[in-house]
């Protein structure tokens, strides 16, 4: 029998009793062995846990949990809350949202609720036993009953359902892993989104004749339609958006909003197919936006809103713009899907609003490539035409068009039109200059034909440090004497001003040369003034050819000379030989007041030399006579010298 250390009671004999339980504020440890015997009870008053000393060996105690329970597990730890100890010997394991825990015997079973119970959304559609709903419609009905805006997650698979969407719902799947086949009826308000689906239909994807305002958004999806529209919503007013979508349809017009007024935003999509269904858009004062799209069906736009094509839009069929729509197109092209030109007009413009097309190309074999009867102005800048480049004669064009036959600049006020062989300043300004500015050291070159300016000036201006700014006329042919190069300055007649060339140093001297049309004989004049007839320095008589110089005539270079034609009866310089001291020289130009300078060239066979004297018979001749020195009036007949004469007429 175990040793008893204490007994209880009065007037009783000594009795065997169990040791008194140890009551402590902690659980026992292996070191609690020295003062206790096997069977000792230990009560941890902080947790109400009861321990019994089961063994002591080598000074180390082994304590076992006696109650509540029989496990050595002291705590349980979850995602939050830390380590949890039993309360009154019990730890509760309870379910949460969509999860229940069922106990039976010694087993706890954790169950997912029959409906819901998924962390992403309560409305998950998939195979039976793996999702809360096996049909999308059932999930829609549940979400609508719950109210508010909900998300329905559709697991991979094919779902053939004509959906009746009755509330604001976002349908989501994984990158086209779920296919929905059918025609669906949308709600008339709220917002509906499809993200990550393959949507197929023999007719339409979304179909309603109501004038609903629901906002639609189809993202990251792929469309397959046999004959219909993605959005067959002719009276809709809510916004329609598509982003990052593709298509492999037979006949798809994408959107039918012919009498509605939805804003349209189509971004980064490949859409439309065939020519059986035309995209019908009604701006209705709103906004029609195409951004980085390939559009493979005909498009018809009407209304009073704004249109924007930008960032690489390609239309594979005719686009018709009507109503009073106005807008802007940047980096847009018209051509078939395989790069071949359209056989129809690329653009039919029937709008009264203005439209700008810039930095794009039009590939159409139709004549005209741009058709229509709209009264709005089409402004083109940087548009290239790869085939036909004609426009309907009913259209008003402006701006810059790059075609084989014409080009129009963008400026409305100082605009130019280049058409055929003509450059016309046709802007609204009263005075428009035309400037040609080569780059660097480049030249403005005209290879063939003339440069004609019927109004204004032709000016070559450039700052060229260390270089020339020139205007040059070069005929490079060297095979024909009639191959000439020249500059011409002309006026309309004798009652006009002067044809002239002006030489000017800014802030310095000015010289002008040309024909003085105000002079009697239309003299050629060089003047040191901007106006001929003022400060004339050289005048060539237009009738007689006489030349007048204001100022001295200088020959400052050594070995230079004045050369004069002589010897004829009309010349003013010549040579004669005295015969018996005299010679008469015929000259029909001689005047009575002329001055004749004579010198002796050589004496010849002279035996005596006289003093040379001259007498003039006007318009007939002059006579040179050698007079005897000291005997005036006596001819020295022995003088047969050779004499030179030079006639000067005094002004």
List keywords for this structure.
651 residues; mainly beta; 6-stranded parallel beta barrel; 5-stranded parallel sheet; 1 helix; 51 strands; 37% strand
Give a verbal description of the structure.
The chain is mainly β and 651 residues long. Among the domains are: 22-73; 202-425; 500-549, no CATH class; 573-648, no CATH class. 2% of the residues lie in helices and 37% in strands. It has one helix and 51 strands. Strands 26-28-31-34-32-29 form a six-stranded parallel β-barrel. It has a five-stranded parallel beta sheet with strand order 25-27-30-33-35, with no helix packed on it. It has a five-stranded antiparallel beta sheet with strand order 41-42-43-44-45, with no helix packed on it. A hairpin with a 2-residue loop joins strand 39 and strand 40 (422-425). It is elongated and about 200 Å long. It starts with 21 loop residues before the first strand and ends with a strand. Residues 1-7 and 401-406 have low confidence and may be disordered.
Layout: helices, strands, pairs:
Layout lengths: L21 E3 L16 E4 L4 E9 L2 E8 L8 E2 L5 E2 L14 E6 L2 E6 L10 E3 L10 H11 L3 E5 L2 E4 L8 E4 L5 E4 L9 E5 L1 E5 L4 E2 L7 E5 L2 E4 L1 E2 L2 E2 L7 E8 L3 E2 L2 E2 L7 E8 L7 E4 L4 E9 L3 E4 L3 E5 L2 E3 L3 E3 L4 E5 L1 E3 L12 E3 L5 E8 L7 E2 L5 E9 L10 E7 L3 E3 L7 E4 L2 E4 L74 E5 L5 E6 L8 E4 L8 E5 L6 E3 L23 E5 L4 E5 L8 E8 L8 E7 L3 E7 L14 E7 L3
Parallel strand pairs: 1-2, 9-10, 10-12, 11-13, 12-14, 13-15, 14-17, 15-18, 16-20, 17-21, 18-21, 19-22, 20-23, 21-24, 24-26, 25-27, 26-28, 26-29, 27-30, 28-31, 29-32, 30-33, 31-34, 32-34, 33-35, 34-36, 36-37
Antiparallel strand pairs: 2-3, 3-4, 5-6, 7-8, 38-39, 39-40, 41-42, 42-43, 43-44, 44-45, 46-51, 47-50, 48-51, 49-50
